[in-house]
Amino acid sequence: MNNSANENRIPRGVSHCGLRELLTGFMDEAAARQTAEDIQKGDEILGANLSPQPDELLLAEVKKNVVAALRRRRTVVFQRRILTAAVAAAIVVVSVLALIRYGNSPNSHQTRMVAAAIPSGVWEGADDADVTVLKAEVENIQSELSGVQSDNAGGNGSTAVDDLETELIEVNGDMWKG
Amino acid sequence: MAQPDIDRVIIGCKNGDEVCFTQLVDIYGRRCFGYFYRLTGNRDLSEELLSELFVKLVEKIGSYRGGSFDGWIFTMASNIFHDHLRFKQRQTRLLDGHSKRIMSQSAGVASGYDGDADKMQRALGELDSDVRELVMMRFYSQMSFKEIAESRREPIGTILSKVHRGLKKLRELMG
């Protein structure tokens, strides 16, 4: 590593390869030649007057700082992962508790029971007009039935009541069938 | 011993390998120090900025997505230098305007070095700050004109013109 460090002690020197060709894209051939020469000589002056070098102690200190920063970063990343996992676990626990608490509430159970007790035909195919007609028929039969029952003195009253009851059952059945 | 393969070192750094990070300091530490020194003219400040650069590198290495690593690291060095300048400017304003201190620090007059180094630092102080930075970036990073133009998002013709102007003036001042 020491040799490689020495190789990097100073800049190897900027490349002038293709510089003139690059410059001819912006100026004529003579100007490009002159500009390339100016740049090359300027680079030579910079190369001959290098900046002071950092001492080895400084570089050792920089390395120490870098390693410390790296370890700090690892700790922060680890802590962040732990925190993320903890937050995720807390969300799961809260969700499960909420499901237990509100999932079994009497209201929601009742709602489900009511919904199941209503025949699906009513939800799916019931037409308001049909329901109204059937309802009117049922009411009509009920009124006839109560009329017959109140007039018990009639000779064949019991047969009339039976007929009406049968009709009522049929109409009622039709209604629920939709 | 051959220079470590830079690609392997970078992969190691991305994986958080401490040895690879120290190798990166060996490869770039001196050049980056030279760059900071030529811009600030101050050894202590250059040491501070160098340390800051490599600590920042630990945080940012994951964002390196290929291409010229020299360009990437020197762009980061340039940003750190500019952050420092902005900080100093704010500080100077707060201290009731001692802007000359910034200028002298930025232009830099080295002390404690040989005559040639002094002369170079003084000559650099005569250049526009933008031109000086460009000339130094090209010299220390060894990036091509095309890479510098891409890194600074400036037309290549503008970069060529500024570097030429800067180096020509430097030659006159040092002549």
Provide structural commentary.
- The complex is a heterodimer of chains A (178) and B (175).
- Chain A is built from 8 helices and no strands.
- Chain A has 178 residues and is an all-alpha fold.
- In chain A, helix 7 (128-150) packs antiparallel against helix 8 (157-177).
- Chain B has 175 residues and is mostly helical.
- Chain B has one domain: RNA polymerase sigma factor, region 2, helix turn helix motif (Rna Polymerase Sigma Factor, Chain: A, Orthogonal Bundle), CATH 1.10.1740.
- Chain B contains 9 helices and no strands.
- Chain B has helices at residues 6-14, 18-40, 43-60, 69-94, 99-107, 115-125, 129-141, 145-152, 156-174.
- The termini of chain B are far apart.
- The model of chain B is unreliable at 108-116 (pLDDT under 50).
- Classes of the chains: A mainly alpha (178), B mainly alpha (175).
- At the A-B interface, helix 1, helix 2, helix 3 and helix 4 of A face helix 2, helix 3, helix 6, helix 7 and helix 9 of B.
User: Which overall shape of chain A is indicated by the principal axes computed on the Cα atoms?
Assistant: elongated
Mean pLDDT of chain B: 86
State the share of residues found in helices of chain A, binned by percent: over 70%
CATH topology of chain B: Rna Polymerase Sigma Factor, Chain: A
Count of alpha/pi helices of chain B? 9
Order of helices and strands of chain B: HHHHHHHHH
- State the end-to-end distance of chain B: 39 Å
Distance between the termini of chain A: 92 Å
Main sheet record of chain B:
none
Shape of chain B: globular
Tally of strands of chain A? 0
The largest interface is:
A-B, 45 and 54 residues
In percent terms, what proportion of residues of chain B is strand?
Answer: under 5%
Structural class of chain B: mainly alpha
Topology:
The complex is a heterodimer of chains A (178) and B (175).
Chain A: H1 2-7, H2 19-24, H3 29-48, H4 56-103, H5 106-117, H6 120-124, H7 128-150, H8 157-177
Helix pairs in contact in A: 7-8
Chain B: H1 6-14, H2 18-40, H3 43-60, H4 69-94, H5 99-107, H6 115-125, H7 129-141, H8 145-152, H9 156-174
